[in-house]
Amino acid sequence: MASNDNNGNITQTQHLSSQTFAQPTTFNGTNENAKSWWKRLENWLILNNLLTLNDQDEIPDDYKQNMSKILSVLSLLFQGTAGQWFDSLDRQARCSCNHLKKTFLAKYQPEDLRWKSLSDIWSIRQGKRETVDHYLFRMHNLATNAAMNKNDVAYYFAVRQGPREDIKRV
């Protein structure tokens, strides 16, 4: 967008929309972390004023505003088998954002993944050339899948046992 400055010179300014900052990714139902994907989707919906949170930073249980727009976005984002699953949902499953989230996570974040992640978190070790940041990133993903809180004592001890020996000594 062009505009004039105080001296009458034409200057170039940019208008940044929320579209500039982030685009939601598609979800096809394979090899994605459903919980992380849904959280990114919620953040995008909030950024685009399609979703609001309550005082506890949660989606109200009965949140139904903008559901037609949210459903339209989801119909574009769900691809492949996830698209077929979404198209097959009945009206009850689509009645509110929270109900849709619960239905989605029940389908794509199964309970066995939680238990596998909980088991894996105790056996994971930092690789020889792996950075601490990447190791912590992997630990955080496992903890998220295992529904572990980062403030849990168990999480603290699991993270402490995995770094390379040269890092543990520091």
Tally the beta strands: 2
What's the story with the biggest beta sheet?
A: 2 strands, antiparallel
Q: What is the string of SSEs from the N terminus onward?
A: EEHHHHHHHHH
> Whole-number radius of gyration?
21 Å
Overall outline: elongated
Strand order across the largest sheet: 1-2
Tally of contiguous helical segments: 9
Class of secondary structure makeup: mainly alpha
Low-confidence stretches: 11-19
The helicity comes to 40-55%
How many separate structural domains? 2
The separation of the N and C termini measures 53 Å
Mean pLDDT: 80
Quick structural summary:
The chain has 170 residues and is mainly alpha-helical. It has helices spanning 18-21, 34-47, 67-77, 80-88, 97-108, 111-123, 132-145, 153-161, 165-168; strands at 2-4, 10-12. It has a two-stranded antiparallel sheet with strand order 1-2.
Key terms:
170 residues; mainly alpha; 2 domains; 4% strand
What does this structure look like?
- The chain is mainly alpha-helical and 170 residues long.
- It has helices spanning 18-21, 34-47, 67-77, 80-88, 97-108, 111-123, 132-145, 153-161, 165-168, and strands spanning 2-4, 10-12.
- It has 2 domains: 23-108; 111-168, no CATH class.
- It has 9 helices and 2 strands.
- It has a two-stranded antiparallel ribbon.
- β1 and β2 form a beta hairpin.
- α6 runs antiparallel to α7 (132-145).
- Residues 11-19 have low confidence and may be disordered.
